[in-house]
Write a structure and sequence with these properties.
With about 550 residues, the chain is mainly beta. It is about 5% helix and about 35% strand. Strands 10, 13, 14, 15, 17, 22, 23, 24 and 27 form a nine-stranded antiparallel β-sheet that branches. Strands 11, 12, 16, 18, 19, 20, 21, 25 and 26 form a nine-stranded mixed β-sheet that branches. The radius of gyration is 35 Å and the shape is elongated. The relative contact order is 0.10.
Length: about 550
């Protein structure tokens, strides 16, 4: 072992002492994953570290020395205790920073560490927030702290849940309830009394990193399945039957009848029944249905666009300035899809940075009323980041005093929302409107989903209006009743794209974390079907093939 003279040992000792002083005074200002620790002042009393401490921050495996210099003491072997158990997931409350004492009531589980690295031990009455006390340094060269376990986080029980809040928002419950936190099939839960926060900190961990989560209230827990019935006893053995008598051969069986014709055949949609369609695989200049574009505060007819699409201000990504145009189908490189991608700072049209395609009332593609029509499109959300606000992706609108669309499809958090409205009063106003809302869970992130609507538009029940919706072949809405407003001078028109209503208001603010939103649409199509020629599968097949 190399020997050092007294002067060099004195210098080393001074450096070690300085390191201790910096460690004891620094830190504590970083982010916290504790529900309680939000920059609270240090509690407890400083812990005196003896000169022969086995604190692994000070022990670098060499000789020990005194802070005042002089000759080194006899080197001793440092014994490190066995690693403490990893801290369980749960909600913790701040106790003390490293090198300080703490107290707890009775016997509690206390964790020691920082960030995502923690160890734990059971403590009675109190202890010291040090490597020595916990037996190991869980995060070397990191300023640590101690926290007491308030409640454990468990996998969410199976049952029926109802929505409470989206991530980063507060919520309240009546009394003490079970609340789960997560998304999709990944959830954790905890018992909540009165109110809480839909955050990683409140639930003690992030159950699904990089995914926008929500909180839901357990309404009814699933009961345990009934036990399987005991097997029936084996039957008593049966005596062997006598050998059968020899008989004449059986006659040949009758021929099997031909199967009944299938009822699942698809009827090809006739071009003459399509009254509006926008297909990315056709040149924009070929559009004959009168589609118009509202985007970045400007208007343009689709047929006037080049194949490069419609550009706005430059955005620092691979798509540069494109706001509306064509993109390669992520699932089929040989096909194109329609793309809209507004930015929160785009120019305003009717008060919002929208990007929508519409078929105005005077165009060939205008909506038809008091007759049976189909409407369908595919939706794909590439690398979509889920945020809590609503954005309308398709709407049927009327001008005049009614203001709101009478049919709207929205992305609402991590669900698809359908809104319908009607008003049969003469000279209707918004205050007299009746509305309904429907929800379909899940967003088509990095995959296609297909919506098919069949409707008859009229504000009067005497016209037998209705509104039916299918998603990927499964019917999700079956409504019979009025649809639209009694405003003959304001006929309806249809739109698709993204309309971030109320984007700068507290009720529906565009989340600043995602300033640009990209949506892909497959061939929005309207079909006139007064004689009932088509089924939902026919319309869906038509759109998917385009």
């Amino acid at each position: 072992m190399q020997q050092f003279d007294g002067t060099r040992l004195s210098i080393i000792a001074q450096l070690i002492a300085t390191a201790f002083a910096v460690s004891a005074c620094g830190g504590g200002g970083g982010g916290s994953d504790s529900a309680v620790d939000s920059g609270a002042s240090t509690s407890g009393n400083p812990v005196t570290v003896p000169s022969d401490s086995t604190d692994t921050q000070a022990d670098n495996g060499g000789s020990t020395s005194t802070a005042g210099g002089g000759s080194a003491s006899t080197p001793t072997k440092t014994t490190i205790a066995a690693a403490a158990p990893v801290a369980p997931s749960g909600v913790y409350s701040f106790l003390a920073y490293e090198k300080y004492a703490f107290t707890v009531s009775g016997t509690q589980l206390v964790r020691y560490g920082s960030g995502s690295t923690w160890i734990a031990k059971t403590v009675t009455n109190g202890g010291q927030c040090t490597n020595q006390y916990f037996g190991v340094d869980p995060a070397p060269a990191t300023y640590k702290r101690c926290e007491v376990l308030v409640t454990t986080t468990a996998a969410a029980p199976v049952g029926t849940y109802t929505h409470l809040a989206y991530e980063k928002y507060p919520f309240s419950v009546t009394g003490t309830q079970i609340v789960r936190y997560g998304s999709g099939s990944t959830w954790i839960s905890r018992s909540v009394t009165g109110s809480g926060q839909c955050t990683n900190q409140f639930f003690g961990k992030d159950p699904l990193p990089a995914v926008y989560k929500r909180c839901e209230l357990l309404v009814q827990a699933s009961s345990a399945p009934a036990p399987s019935p005991a097997p029936a006893p084996a039957p008593a053995p049966v005596a062997a039957a006598p050998a059968p008598a020899v008989t004449a051969p059986a006659p040949a069986p009758a021929p099997t009848p031909a199967p009944a014709p299938s009822t699942s055949t698809t009827t090809t949609v006739a071009p003459g029944d399509v009254f509006a369609e926008l297909n990315a695989n056709n040149a924009f200049a070929s559009d004959s249905d009168g589609a118009g574009l509202e985007c970045d505060g400007r208007n343009a007819s689709v047929r006037s666009l080049s194949e490069a699409g419609f550009s706005g201000s430059y955005l620092s990504d691979v798509l540069s300035s494109t706001r509306f145009g064509k993109a390669t189908d992520p699932e089929n490189a040989g096909r194109k899809t329609l793309m809209v991608r507004p930015n929160v700072n785009d120019g305003l049209t009717a008060g919002a940075p929208r990007c929508e395609v519409s078929w105005w009332t005077t165009q060939p593609g205008a909506l038809k009323t008091k007759t049976d029509i189909w409407y369908a499109f595919g939706l794909y959300l590439p690398n979509w980041e889920t945020t809590p606000e609503e954005g309308i992706i398709s709407q049927w609108h009327q001008a005049g005093n009614t203001v709101n669309p009478f049919m709207a499809i929205m992305i609402a958090g991590d669900r698809i929302k359908f809104h319908t409205g009607w008003n049969s009063n003469t000279n209707p106003t918004q205050s007299g409107n009746s509305t309904r809302s429907y929800y379909s869970n899940g967003l088509p992130i990095n995959k296609w989903t297909y919506f098919v609507i069949k409707a008859k538009i009229s504000p009067f029940t005497s016209d037998a209006p209705y509104f039916k919706v299918w998603r990927d072949g499964t019917q999700i809405i079956d409504y019979s009743g009025p649809l639209s407003y009694n405003s003959p001078t304001n006929p309806p028109w249809a739109k698709f794209g993204l309309y971030p209503w109320g984007y700068n208001t507290s009720s529906n603010r565009w989340s600043p974390e995602v300033p640009t939103k990209t949506l892909l649409f497959r061939t929005p199509t309207f079909v006139h079907d007064p004689n009932g020629k088509y089924k939902e599968a026919d319309i869906r097949a038509y759109v998917k093939a385009r």
